[in-house]
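Archive entry. Fields below.
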Amino acid sequence: MKLHNISFNNLRRRKGKMIFLVLGLFIGIATIVTLMSITESMTHDIEDRLDQYGANIVMVPRSDNLALSYGGITMGGVNYQTVEFAEAKIPEIRTIENSKNLGLVAPKVLGAATVKGKDVLLMGVDIETEMQLKNWWQFAGAPPAAADELLIGSQTAKTFSLAIGDILTIGNRDFTVTTILKPTGASEDGIIIGDLHTFQEILGKQGKVSMVEIQAFCRDCPITELVLQIGEKFPEAKVTGLRQAMMSKMQTVEMFKTFSYGIAVLVIFIGSLLVFVTMMGSVNERTREIGIVRAIGFRRGHVMQIILLEAMVVGLLGGLLGYLGGNAIAWAALPLVVKSSSFAGLNYNLGGVSLLLAVALSLIASLYPAQKASKLDPSEALRAL
Amino acid sequence: MATMTQNPAVDANAKHLIEIQGIGKDYQEGESSVQAIREMTFAIDDGEFVSIMGQSGSGKSTLLSILGGLNHPTRGRILLDTLDIYKLTSEQRADLRSEYIGVIFQSFQLIPYLTVLENVKLPMSITGRKGRKQEKMARDVLARVGLANKADRLPDQLSGGEQERVAIARAIVNKPPILLADEPTGNLDSKTAEEIMNLLKELNSEGQTIIMVTHNPEACKHSSRTIMVKDGSCFEN
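PREDICTED_STRUCTURE:
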């Protein structure tokens, strides 16, 4: 028989006490894990939603001669001449170091044309990408599906008295109006949107792109880093990160995280007290037993070894069950707490931290009573006989 | 009857196994000090079976705990083979107990969550003996006390007499030269008590030094010498 046999036999044959101790740790750790898991899932959810909400990097050619505006980009008053870059070079955006953080890349060609005797801004886009990027757009009709179909801003539709199904001639080509945007209050209201390559031809800008809107998922990278990396690839471009949007995005998430960490610290504090009191009681109950083994010839170190090994086993069990239980609760509770949010999955780092925390709590809580018990004069302990 | 303080049994020239030299023990009770042991001086030789007899509260259990290195005396010293045991650190005294002293406690004091066999193995768990050797020694000693067939029982599944036998087996399994027994028959009926006393006598006849504390005059009959303790002092009977 070795000392660890004494620890294991105590835990095995005094199941009630062990279950009580493990339960104390389980509640503490499970509460923390549940809270953290729900927070993490909600954070993911918020980040995903915010990330999907439009572009947060804009790339335009370096030029002092821009006029009109779109999405904060000035295109100049009556000078519709813009500087462009080659469309063929656009895919290079995806070769930057943090390319995994890139979402949609939406190139656009911009230019003025005269329609029914009026100047109007044309914007050629990859329709499918654009519709995904501007997922807040509300419109009448169906999104354009062919190169000769148009998406018309609300103001433009009013100006030209256009309705869905109408034919509009731009240059020498006929287009069908399939979609009319509801007022957005933004630049889209006064423009005509159509297929990128078709509009390039009409504007005489084949293979050219006026600007690129980029969607970046900045959960684990600073947007400035992405802006720099894209800027290095396109020295002729002016790359701008919509910092404000990102800042408020991150602030929301950070506030949420800080709140949950605050709660977690509180739970850890209360849990530690609970474990400490339970461990203290458990060791104090064993004063007589400690007296016996000390009288038999056990050293203080032997007594400490037995008690701390038990604490470690209890900690490991409590931590593991707490982690699994916490995740199970989070998985079950998440749809009730946050509608439409889904469980982010097991976080193994959190698992490691839970185990360490539980073992550390258990050890710290037993250290003082174990030390006190081992220092007890055997005759004092035996007086309780 | 002569007080042990003047007892010629402590011969300055003779070498004894244990020498108790002028020990005393005071306890603090509130602001006043109570003398549990006033002054005791006597010696015990190797192979003796000594009974320490006295009424409850006479100081005999305190004396036994001091002899076992469990309770620091207020005055005097205990020499074990000329070694002053209270000059050792508490950890050294723990090692000394492990190697030289077996203790049979009043009310058996078995560990409730360990089986009979594990309780007997308990003193060996800190000796570094191999598992197989431990197993053999524990089973041999259980056979010796007549409990070979109850090795896997838990203490609360045994009768009082059987628990006392387990306590004896645990105390002698490491083959310590000195066996201290605190009221070993105190909780037993007369028949079982007689059996236990015969077992102790048998161990003594094999050379084990036994020091037994009791308030039962019947138990003293089995010992080779009786020391009476009264009001914190002792007398040779």
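CURATOR_NOTE: Residues 190-205 of chain B form the longest helix (16 residues).
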